[in-house]
Amino acid sequence: MNRNVRRRFASMTWLGVMYLLTVLALIPLGLVLWFTVSRGLPSVLHPEFFTNSFRPVGIPGGGIAHAIVGTGILVGLASLMSIPVGILGGVYVAEYAVDPWASWVRLASDVLVGTPSIAIGLFAYALVVVPVHHFSGIAGSVALAILMLPIVIRTAEGAVALIPHGLRESGLALGLPRWRVSLQLILPAAAPGVITGALLAVARASGETAPLLFTSLGNTLFKVDPTQAMQALPLTVYQYALLPYKSLQDQAWGAALVLVVMVLGINLLSRWVLRRQIRLAGQL
Amino acid sequence: MAAAVESASTAMPPARRVPDRFRTVSALVAAAAPAILVVIVVILFQQAAPAVRHFGLGFLTGTEWNPVTDMFGALPAIFGTVSTAFLALVLAVPVGVAVAVVLAEQGQTTLRGILGTGIELLAAIPSVVYGIWALYVLAPWSYQHLELPISDRFGSIGWLSQPGARSLFNASLVLAVMILPTLSAISREVIRAVPRGLKENAVALGATWWETTWRVILPSARAGIFGATILALGRALGETIAVTMVIGNRYAIPPSIFSPAYTLASVIANEFNEATGTLYPAALIELGLVLILVTLVVNIVALLLVRSTSREASRAA
Predict the structure, then answer these.
(1) Residue contacts between A and B (CB atoms, under 8 Å)
(2) What is the pLDDT of residues B238-248, one digit of tens each?
(3) Answer CATH for B63-316 from 1.10.3720.10, 2.60.40.1470, 1.10.645.10, 2.60.40.420
(4) Nearest chain B Cα distance for residue A18, angstroms
(5) What pTM did the predictor assign?
(6) C-alpha angle B291/B271/A115, rounded to 5°?
């Protein structure tokens, strides 16, 4: 009797401890969001923050237009390089899952996801910047594309593997060649899941700083030419936050807020697309 | 028709086998992933060659980093990387597993769903945002409310003295916050994969909630949780920006966890653009090579662990 009371008491205590630790975990995570919003909002509320580029300290009206456009171009180019390759690779890994080569691709993608992004930046520096002796947006987007590729491969694979076998078999039974079954039948059915993966990869690439440090380098000017050094949102946050000027630090917080809203927005959008995929797969 | 003629002329077996060209093409495209991985290691090795040749294995044990005299040793950076990552794990793992246990089975389903989604979303926040927060909010707070009180009381112990806002400890603290979402999201999945029958057996035998969790659920999810921990370790080892902003960037093995230090990734981030000559950039790239090889091993071990648990779970289910 006495022992059972003690056991139940111990159980309740541990349950309490677990809840306490959960709350403890949520506090810093909540604080990150709170400070980003509260410190970033004053900058973001000025319209010129989005229309102007860098202004030297002391001249009011500095903005992050150059960084927003730079991030758009860098991530856009990286998407053009990585998403088509990643989708076809993912289709291969899912459709020929029994191939030994497919499991090597899977392992390599998983390892590549965990590779430190600064090392990928060094690689893109050696590959693109060294031969042309010039920092450039292209070098930055190569680094981002390498980051995105394994994410696209693995999520496309997951989406294709969700499609019921019946669809594949009916296509083959009708005499369609393998490539038409995979690309014109399976892939459209898996489209929402594939798009989700591409969006997640875009979100990840938009927030990366380390691979851009020695590739696209950063720029104080508004540039749309990817053969030149280019600014990006995460670079702005990193560079301005470390400067001893209050006005630039405020802009760093503003840029951080824009970045967070963008990344979380893309993530929520991808979740919504994915939910449609699951409903669609249920109907098939 | 044509195939029949062909098979007759080349004496192929009667069953018609069309070569699957799509398989060949897509396999070649998919080869991009393994190819990039190999090329990264090869190119970094090639770029680091001058330093590798000049210092040999002594590079790993050298403690000096002096571009003026061209003396480069990696030990302080390796020490900083490994110690910040491990300290972050010590701080984050108990909390992360508790979150996973609570999210896997406690409370209302809707609330759990919202919290689970929230934690997964937090894993997507860019590291530079954690970095600016750590620099302006976390590090000053931790200096005032953690480092000062601890060093006041235990300052006689060497490695708990000399508090400062830019420190190895604060870098570990922000790393812990950053790896927490990944850690708890994966652990939650692993705990959920534990077959229901096991838990029901324990409850039927009269085990309390804690006894079920501690003696049945966590032991059977052990390998997966360990895998999640190692994946988090991989992320902590390679994290650059947030750590660079708070660790203080001093190239020496720190006397105390409250002193400034340096990590492999931070040295590269801070110095690579200013590195001139041949030996200096090569030495920095060799740091990157050390980093990439360490994380490669850590990640492969983690992947094998997580895979073996999910395979076990699907076999048991």
Answers:
(1) 257
(2) 999 999 999 99
(3) 1.10.3720.10
(4) 5
(5) 0.92
(6) 25
